[in-house]
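Data card: per-record layout.
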Amino acid sequence: MNTHWWARPAATLDRQAAEAAHAQQQTLTKPPGSLGRLESLAEQLAAWQGRASPKIDRVWISVFAADHGVAEEGVSAFPQAVTGEMVRNFAGGGAAISVLARMLGATLDVVNLGTVNDPGQIDGVLRAIIAPSTANLCRAPAMTREQCEAAMRIGAERVAQARSAGADLFIGGEMGIANTTSATALACALLDASPMALAGAGTGLDDAGIARKIAVIERALRLHADMGEPFERLRCLGGFEIAALAGACIAAAQARLPVLVDGFIVTAAALAAVRMNPSVRDWLLFAHRSHERGHARLLDALDAEPLLDLGLRLGEGSGAAVAVPLLRAACALHAGMATFAQAGVSEKTAPPVEATIVEAVS
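The structure for this 362-residue chain is written out next.
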């Protein structure tokens, strides 16, 4: 019997709240369905939050940073020192996600899981060091079982913090030089797909760099060909931040906290989470379609229709943060529009009986 915490079922959706939200939508001063997906988003948020009028006031963004041993294979256009440097930039307010978090009034929670270029103790950064880096995944499993479980547990702990802070929405972001290689390898293993079909430019690789990345991933998949359960695939091919994101997705679903999923790397983590615990899928909303080559395949596997398609491929949780105003708009329209009765506006009239008969016959 599987007794791991991540196997516990996710919370159930509140169908009654969703039905109440749907009924409310039908009374608002607009033709039914005229606000398109904004209407269904309000209903989906109602099911998650258990209230007919949902809200997205408090947003929690956890950015997990970690280094990858596979960087030594030359699979990134940037040096590995950048991971630690960006941790400092996140806390200093200069990164894209820092700017977006300020704009949204969101909590930005930066978590250092282990960087080769250790920035040390920084105000606003949680030091949760597992190791300076994962192992090189094309030479050995990226993580030990203990390391992978620790990373997942840290992700779950950040969700618990978000929940205790009253968050209405959780966003996970990541930073780690070479983590598109790790995420692509994991995606290939989970989808039984070729690296040729999924590997992209990442931080800006040229064609030769992408070919090198593909060769590295092929070596990794051959080395770990006997991987079985999804946890083992995550352990052998993932990274500390990817495992933390998977753990966060699972814990959020168990804690009734909806997750707005970012781009390629976070979606790979989300797929791992869903493969480990299928009930998690009900609690995931997908923010955008990344420009990274393999993202479409991941979205298809998760039956996901993202909110935006802006050609983004930065990571950090930035694409998810950009989508938050859409959710807030959905909530504001749902709660703030007048009903036909309140506004004294005539509702849609039924067609004449004769016309209805003619249409039915024709």
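Known properties of this structure: The beta strands are 59-66, 107-114, 125-127, 169-175, 259-261, 284-286. The two ends are 60 Å apart (CA to CA).

See the next section for split statistics.
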